[in-house]
């Protein structure tokens, strides 16, 4: 199961990298179209940029919030020898929800759907952490 957990971590790294590239492309396109000036990048004041530019940047920031808590959980699982099929499945669900959240956020940006997917991901992450704590304490 350790290998499958590492696959989920790699999937998160792929997602973060893909959003970073998309964010850069959208920002440079906005600068090229004079929606924002190149000087705006000095302070990251992207006032005037369209919603897609802002949403993609915010999504990139999101990749360093809840997903980091997942990555720490994986490190603890591996260190404590607690990885199992249940953690692998929960991790897979969490990462799939992160992808779904990202596609909503940088696509249609439908707030209700985005919030529901985000909340569901948080619940899965809490289940992971609670289970990890219980198993670690019982060890």
- What kind of sheet is the major sheet? none
The H/E string reads: HHHHHH
Radius of gyration: 18 Å
State mean pLDDT (0 to 100 scale): 94
Number of helices: 6
What class do helices, strands and sheet pairing give?
mainly alpha
Distance between the termini: 18 Å
How much of the sequence lies in strands comes to under 5%
Poorly predicted sequence stretches spanning 5 or more consecutive residues: none
Helix content range: over 70%
- Total DSSP E strands: 0
Shape by Cα distribution:
elongated
Characterization of the model:
The model has no long low-confidence stretch (mean pLDDT 94). Helix 1 runs antiparallel to helix 3 and helix 5 runs antiparallel to helix 6. It contains six helices and no strands. The chain is elongated and about 60 Å long. 81% of the residues lie in helices and 0% in strands. By secondary structure, the chain is mostly helical.
Quick overview:
The protein is 81% helix and 0% strand.
List keywords for this structure.
single chain, 139 residues, 0% strand, mainly alpha
Write the layout of secondary structure elements.
Elements: H1 2-32, H2 40-43, H3 51-62, H4 66-80, H5 85-106, H6 111-138
């Amino acid at each position: 199961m350790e290998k499958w957990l590492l696959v989920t971590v790699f999937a998160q790294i792929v997602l973060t990298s893909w959003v970073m590239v998309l964010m850069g492309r959208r920002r440079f396109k906005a600068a090229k179209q004079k929606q924002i000036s190149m000087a705006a990048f000095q302070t990251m004041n992207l006032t005037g940029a369209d919603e897609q530019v802002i949403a993609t940047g915010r999504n990139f920031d999101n990749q360093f919030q809840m997903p980091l808590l997942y990555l720490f959980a994986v490190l603890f699982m591996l260190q404590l020898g607690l990885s199992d099929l249940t953690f692998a499945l929960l991790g897979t669900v969490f990462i799939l929800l992160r992808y779904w959240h990202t596609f909503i956020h940088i696509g249609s940006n439908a707030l209700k759907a985005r919030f529901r997917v985000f909340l569901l991901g948080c619940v899965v992450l809490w289940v992971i952490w609670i289970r990890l704590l219980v198993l670690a304490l019982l060890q």
